[in-house]
Input
Amino acid sequence: MVNSWEATFTPTNVTSARCCISFKLNQLANGVMKKLSETYKELGIAFTFPIEIEDANGNQTYYESSRNYWCKREYDAKSNVTYYENSDDYWSKWERDSKGNITYYENSCGCKDGTPRSQSCAGKVIEVDGKKYKLTEL
Output
């Protein structure tokens, strides 16, 4: 069963969905990330499940259940998710333009859609015949 907040991070285009079909659920996350509950136990901090942490904008950045499941998210300044990772060894990352439109998506299944900023020349300055030009992507 998928929680409603998990469903919002499911890829919506056909290419991304096809890439995720082959993903095997319930993989062991061998040392990927230490659960917050383990840290709390080591430090002697009392807690109850679920452990939920939000950022200053009210976005959930960490969730951990009593069933050994955890997930973490990172957000941009506009509260758009930019990174998601969970205890099933699954991760996704998104890049967006200034309007919030997804320009690049990648996940641990091997799916990639769009052009990552690192491969784009947008914003770079070049010089031709002594004149400088700032590149924009079409």
Summary: Residues 70 and 87 are 5 Å apart (CA to CA). The chain has one domain: 4-134. Strands lie at 51-54, 60-64, 70-75, 81-86, 91-96, 102-107, 112-114, 125-128, 131-134.
